[in-house]
Amino acid sequence: MKQKKRDSSRLFWISYADLMTALFIVVLALFVFAYKMFKIREDVLVKTEEELRVRSLELDKQNQALEEVMRRLSEEELHASSLIQKLNDEKARLLVMEIEYRKLQEIQKAIENLDPRYFVYQPEYKRHVLRTQVQFDKGKSDIKQPYKPILEEAGKALRQLVDQLEPNDNIKYLMVIEGMASRDDYTRNYELSYERALSLVRLWEEQGITFDQDRVEVMISGSGEGGVGRNMDEEVKNQRFLIQIIPKIGELKGVEYENSDSLSNDVEEEEIP
C-alpha cells in the first residue's frame, strides 16, 4: 500500500514538472516571438525614421531652392521695374528733345525772315549777308559816313527780329557778327576783318542798338581771307559782313512720365496737316 502511494506521488511530480517545463517552453517561445516581433518593429521604425530624415533633408533643400527662386524672381522684378522706369525716362527725354527741336525749327524760320531790304539769307550756310556792299580803304576798319545810315537801319531791323523771337528760359541765342576781307596782299586781313566787324558793332552801340545780354550773346569774329561762300568772281565783294543767329538750348528740363502721354499727343496733333 505504501509502495502504491509513493508511485502515485512520484507520477504527480513528474507530471507537474512536465507541465512546468511545457509552460516554460511556451513562455520562452512567446518571449522569443515577441522579441522577434519587437526587433522587426524596431527595424521598421528605424527605417521609417531614416526615410523621414531623408525626406526632411529633401524638403529643406526644396525650401532652399524655392527661396532662391523667389529671391531671383524678386531681383528680376526689381530689374524689370528699373528698366521700365529707364524706358519711361528715356521716352520723356525724347519727347522733350522733339519739342525743343520743333521750337528750334520755328525759331529758325523766324530768323530766316530778317528784313530783306537789308539782309540776304543764304540757306546753304544758314546765315545772313548784309545786302549793302561796304567798301573800306585798304588796311582800314573805319566805316565811311555814306554807309552809316543804311547800317544803322540794318541794326534796328536785326534788333527788332531778336526782340520778336519768343522768350524761352531754355533757349538762348548766339549772334555772330563776322567780317570778311578781300585778297589784296594786305598782311593783316584776318585782324582787319575782325576790326571791321567790331566797328559795325560799335556803330550800332553808338546809336543805342544793343541786345539783351540775358538772351543774346554777341560774338565778334573775322574770317579774313578764308571762310565759306566767298565770291570767287569779284574779290572786292568779299569785303562784307555776315550775320548768324544761332539758337542755343540750355539744360533740357525733365518731364514726368505721367505727363509724357499728353505731350506725345500734342506732338502728334501738330503733325496733322
List the helices and strands and how they pair.
Elements: H1 2-112, E1 119-122, E2 127-130, H2 148-164, E3 171-180, H3 189-206, E4 216-224, E5 241-249, H4 257-271
Parallel strand pairs: 3-4
Antiparallel strand pairs: 1-2, 2-5, 3-5
Helix pairs in contact: 1-4
Fold and architecture overview:
With 273 residues, the protein is α+β, with helices and mostly antiparallel strands. Helix 1 (2-112) crosses helix 4 (257-271). 59% of the residues lie in helices and 13% in strands. It is rod-shaped. The chain is built from 4 helices and 5 strands, in the order H-E-E-H-E-H-E-E-H. It has one domain: 60s Ribosomal Protein L30, Chain: A.
> Structural class, please?
alpha+beta
The helix content is 55-70%
CATH homologous superfamily designation:
OmpA-like domain
Q: Can you tell me the overall shape? A: rod-shaped
CATH architecture: 2-Layer Sandwich
Beta-strand segment tally: 5
What is the CATH third-level topology name? Answer: 60s Ribosomal Protein L30, Chain: A
How far apart are the termini?
150 Å
- In DSSP terms (H or I, runs of 4 or more residues), the helix count works out at 4
Largest sheet: 5 strands, mixed
Question: What is the arithmetic mean of pLDDT?
Answer: 80
Strand order of the largest sheet: 1-2-5-3-4
Can you write the helix and strand succession as a string? HEEHEHEEH
Strand percentage: 5-15%
**Low-confidence runs:** 251-260
Radius of gyration, taken over Cα atoms and rounded to an integer in Å: 53 Å
